[in-house]
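Predict the 3D structure for this chain.
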Amino acid sequence: MEQPNWPIFQLAQQKEAFVGQVVVDTLKSLEDTHLISGSYKRILEKTVYKERTRIKKMPWAVDPKNESKKWSNYKSQLTKLYSQSSVAESPKDKEYDILKAIVQDYAREIMGHFNYKTYKFSIRAVPVFLNRILNGISGRLFFGFFQKKKRFRDKIKIQGDIDLIKSLEKKGTLVLVPTHFSNLDSMLIGFAIYLIGLPPFIYGAGLNLFNNKIVSYFISRLGAYKLDRRKKNAIYLETLKTFSRVALQRGVHTLFFPGGTRSRTGALESKLKLGLLNTVIEAQRNNYLNENQQKIYIVPLVVSYHFVLEAPGLIKQHLKTQGKEKLYLEREKFGGFFKTIRFIYKFLSKGSSIVLSYGKPIDVFGYYVNNQGESIDQNGQKLDPQQYFTSSQKITTDKQRESQYTNALSDKIIKEFFSLNIVLSSHLVSFVAFQMIKKQFKDFDLYNMLKLDNEDTAIEYDAFKNTIERVCARIKALEAQNKIKYSKSFEFESDTLIAHGIKNVGVFHPKKVLFIDKKGRVNTQNMNTLYYYHNRLEGYMLDQYV
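Done. Predicted structure below.
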């Protein structure tokens, strides 16, 4: 089998050299920021304490069996080192050896294991498997008579300037920054990357996903590197950032979720994690420092689902965190391999689509780029990004300056998310229903409103329809200003649009998010989940039209 010349494949072939570079660069960064009075004592002791606490309080099946012993050994080494009554020489060398060992452990843990054969198998087998499920369902529903065969590919709607993105892949390094709503995002986006003709990207996957051996086998060989969100210590976070930066400097196309984790509220990300985003700025600067003119291009992506598998659990997590004693929430397990399969089954059988809206690529300073990969300013003039890293006619490193660049890039990505957002019929009906209930009980705070039963939440259909039409008109006006996008369902007649939205938003969850009750009113069985789907349209000031 002919091996491709993809950056991700080259990274897999040079894994040991790559890990070595990550270790060296991480140690240099830690020396610059955490070597205090010639000692690493503070950061080492803090890291060992946090890791031993994590092992006791938050163990996972995927954790190495000897992990507790390893960190106990590090503790013993530090205790011995710092308890000596008199040290003939500085303990710095011993400290450095311990620090290096910890960084090496982290770098190897994070590293993925991309395998070309597994990738080729997956992109061929997964669509076939899903197509069989889809057509098997259709056959049972229609007894197999004259039933046109369906494709899973047809469920995925892709929008954006794909030709521009593909042309830039040949000229530089792509960084895909999507919204994040579901654990299915990585699989879906990875498949869409293949569909539009791009090579595979590396991407961070939560270590909890590796608890399942089948899932772990595939995602670790399809470009995923491991993220352990339990680890909050400075050594791990610096190793993770360096991993990202070095991969970008090597030209490896990268996907990361700038929001950090799935949206608990169902809203678009309005605040991004700046750590990994900053590595994009640093990698571009280092390219110029090393006289490498290869540019890094950032591609925002908004993923739109009619319904999200984990929605009830995610919104409960958010409400429990925010409301604390105001709202009692029963513990609910969600996720899991078989539940995910059931979700896919329901999704395929109900006709819902997923929309991926790709934005126009930008450089690391947020300027749009043309077909030649050149940065274009607000006046349509070409500009040289190197000037932003230049001081006294030299490329320089300035952390404070680059921190400002990172903030500006974050603001640009958020703005792109809101303008790329595809409003589906399910988002529309959920937003209008929740807002109408909210205005009916305007003296209630959020937590009291969420306790309402469906005798109190019923909405007269005609009033609901009229409000839908007003909000629709406003969304279309915003779309004309490039501030949002709407789906084809908005061209339906109002009654059809409402029926489409109610059907799709309630297709999976046991408690109906919205339904038409016996009196012909719009109603809900689950205010929490309705709130989650409503939040997708927060930030557009649409409540003024309800």
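Residues 325 and 417 are 33 Å apart (CA to CA).
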